[in-house]
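FORM 7B - TANDEM STRUCTURE REPORT

SECTION 1: FIRST PROTEIN
SEQUENCE AND C-ALPHA CELLS:
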Amino acid sequence: MPTPRLLPPQFFLPAWNVASLGPLRWLHGSGPRRANNAPKQVSGSQLSLFDELFPEEAVKGPKSEEATRHVPRLPLPDPEEVSSNSQSEGIPKGGTQWGDNARGLDAFRKEDVTILVLRRASKSLDEHDFRRMVPKGQHIEEWRGPGDFLKVIPGRDPHTLQPLEHYFLLFPNPANARAYQDHAGRTHRMARTHTPTSITSPLPPTPGMVISGEDVHALLQDYALCPPSQKLSLRTLVSPYSRSVQRLLDHGGYDAVVQPHDRTGKAVILWVEGYQPSTQALKDVIARDGSDRGMTWGVADGEDCIERIKIPVATVEAPEDSGSMSDLELRPRKQTRFSRWIITFGDEAEARRFARCWHRRPYPMPSERIVFGEPPPLVHTDFLW
C-alpha cells in the first residue's frame, strides 16, 4: 500500500496563481498592444490642472510650429559703443555714494530745490548723522519714507575751507523738507524730555520702549544734530538766495573742492599749527611715514594730488549777531593765516584713514629747526565730504 502524500502547510503555498499573471503577459510581448494613434486613457486623478480646467484645449493637442507667432529678436548693442557713450556722457564706471550724489545734484540744478539750514551745530557732524534722521517707512523698517534729502553741504569758509557751525540740506521738494523738519523737531523734543539733567530726573527710556510706534531708545541713540539742552535751529532758506549760496548750489560745493575736478569724499585738508613747511617737504614727510608703517599712503596720481590753497587776505570780520540768517553769506573770517593743503586720495576709505591717523599728530620738524623747550607743531586734518 503506497504511503499517503502529505500536503505542505498553508503558509508555504504561494499567494499567486496562473490566472493572476494574465495581465502581465504584455510585458513579454505576448499580450495585445495599444496602437500608436489610439488615445491614451488617463484616469481622472492623473489629469493635470490645465486639462481639468480647459478640457477643450487638451483635446486639440499641441499647436504646430506654423501656428505659433514669430517674435523677432532685437539686436544687442555693441559693448564698445556702450562704453564710449558712457564715457562721453561722464557716467562713472562704478556707482559710489558720492557719484550718486553728484548725479542727483545735476538733476535738481535745473529745478527748484528746498534748502534747510541747520545752525549752531557741531563742526564734527557727518552725513550719516543727518541720514539717520530721515523718517523711516511705515511698512518696512529699512526703507526710508518721505523726507529723504539729496545732499548735505557743510558750511565752510570759502577761502580756507575751515568748517563752520551750519549745514545746508538740499531736498527735491518742500514736502520732503517739511517731513524731515517735523521729524527732527519731534526727536529733539523727545530727547529733551527723556534726557536726565539732575538726580531727580526720570530714568531714560529702556531698550525696546515704544512711543507712537517708534523705539525711543534707538531713536535717541541715533540723534546727534543738536544737544538736548540747546534749541534746535533748523529753518528753511527762502529764495531768492544770495550770490554765494547760489554759486554753492550751481557748482555743487566750494570752488577749491569741486574745481577743476570734484574731489568730494576722497580728499583731506591739512594744515600745521605753528610751522609753515613747503609742499615738497610735506610730500617727503608723508612718503617717509608710509615707509615707516610698511604701507604707502594711497595718494592719487598727478601733480595736484597735494595742492596748496591760495588764501587771500581776509578783510571782512565775522558778524556779531550769529542768530540772524544774514550771516550765511559764506564770508571769510579773520584768523591766523596757516598754509593749507588739499590732499587727494584714491578712495574714501584711504582719505578717512589718513585724516584719523594724522589729526593732532606732532609734525616731524627738521633737526636744525627744533627749538629746545618748545612744543612741536601739531598737524590738523579734516575730511572733505
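SECTION 2: SECOND PROTEIN
SEQUENCE AND C-ALPHA CELLS:
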Amino acid sequence: MSFAVGTSEIAVFQIPSTDIWLMDSPGFDDTVVSDTDILQQFADELASCFDNEVKISGVLYMHAINEVRMKGSMLKNLRMFKKMVGEKNMGCCVLVTTKWGLQGIEVSTAREEELKKGSWSPLLANGAGISRFEDSKKSAVDIVMRVAETGGFIPKIAQEYVVEGKQLSETEAGREVIDDIEKAKAFHQEEMKMMQEEHLSAIEANKNEFASLLKQYEQESVAKLEEMERSKAELERTYEENIHKVRTSRVLRAIRNALGAIITLASGGTLGPWVVGLRAATDAACGIVGIP
C-alpha cells in the first residue's frame, strides 16, 4: 500500500508473476477530490481487504526529495498518514524518497538529513524505515519486498472502522478531516456574512453590477457550505452500512458486465430485446448506487 500525492483515485494492481498487490492511494488536500472522498475510498478498499481476508503487509510513504520545504499539504498528508496507520504500526512502514536524479546528490542528502531530524523524526523513532528510490526496477523491487516480507498488520483506521465498527467521523483520521471541515466552514460563514453586508451596501448605493457580482460569490459560498455538510454526513456511515453498499455495487457491476456479453451473443435473436431491457434496468440500478 502506498501513500502519495499525484493521483486522485485509489488504484490496485498486481506485480506480475507474484501474489503481491499494490494499493496506490492519493494524498489529501487534493484540488480535484475532497478529503472526505479520499478517506472514504481508503476505508472502502480496506473493508474489501478484510472482506476477502487479504493481508496488508506494509505502507510506503512517498516523498519527492527535491521539495525545498514541507508545504501545508505535505504536513497534512503526514498527519493523516500517522492517524490512518497508527504510531505502533510504523515498523511496517517505509518512508521512500524519490526524484534523486533531479538535483545534486549533496543537496538531496542534506534534505534527507533535514527530514530525518525534523518532521520524520517521530515516525523513525517509532520504527519506520527509510529508503531511496533510485529510478531503477531493482530499487523498486527492493523497497516493495522490504514491506512485503513483514507478518502483516491492521492499520489503525481499519481497526477503528472495520473491527470496532466506528463511524468514519469517530476515527482519528475522520476527526482530523471533520476539524478541517469545521475550520473551513467558519471561514466561509464569516466571508459570507461580510459579502451579505457589502451586497446590501452596494444595492443602497445603486452599484448594481457590483451587487450582482457579490450575490454570485454569496451563492458560491452557500454551495461550498452545503458540500461541507454533505462531506460530514458521508463520514457518519459505519463499516456495516458502507460494506453493504460496496458489495451491492460489485454485484450490480458484475450483472451489468455479464448482460453486456449476453447482448452481444443474443443480438438479432428473440432474446435480444428482453436482455436489452434487463440491461437498461441494471444500468438504472447502477446509477442509483453511483456506479459509473
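SECTION 3: OBSERVATIONS ON SECOND PROTEIN
Residues 172-204 form the longest helix (33 residues).
The radius of gyration is 24 Å.

SECTION 4: SIGNATURE
Preparer initials: ____
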